[in-house]
Amino acid sequence: MAKKIYLSQIQAKIDLLQRERKQVLEHLELVDNKIKKLQDALEVMEAEALTNEYDTELYTYRTYKHRFNGKLRQMVLAVLKAQPDHYFTVNELTEIVLIKDGQEPIIRPQHTVSVRGALKHWLTKDVVERLGMGVTDVKWRLKHK
Description:
Strand order of the largest sheet: 1-2
Oligomer: single chain
Number of strands: 2
Number of helices: 4
Order of helices and strands: HHHHEE
CATH topology of the largest domain: Arc Repressor Mutant, subunit A
Radius of gyration: 32 Å
Largest sheet: 2 strands, antiparallel
Mean pLDDT: 86
């Protein structure tokens, strides 16, 4: 008789463990699904960063991220104020500002476009002057007042 009680208790314990096992497997499936979604999100984010591979001569995909960590206009003005009598090309200014910003001085076209925009801002405010010796040979310096 005592054996029947033990057998039923053991069977109840087996049933409980099987239910727990089923719950653990369901939870594991949910975790696997979440991991898969996060991996898919990583793939999407990496693919978005590679849009510049599809740029052509006629069209450049826009990426909306800051090229410089600091405030570009103030950095350009500080560089020009440091050497007020020196004429800078856009590439020279870009390289100096990249170093001042703590980045590698690797000049990309997007950097020069941003620096040109900052220079244009200061030109309209009549803070800098532009010396254009040709269409491509343009130099900038701080305007003397």
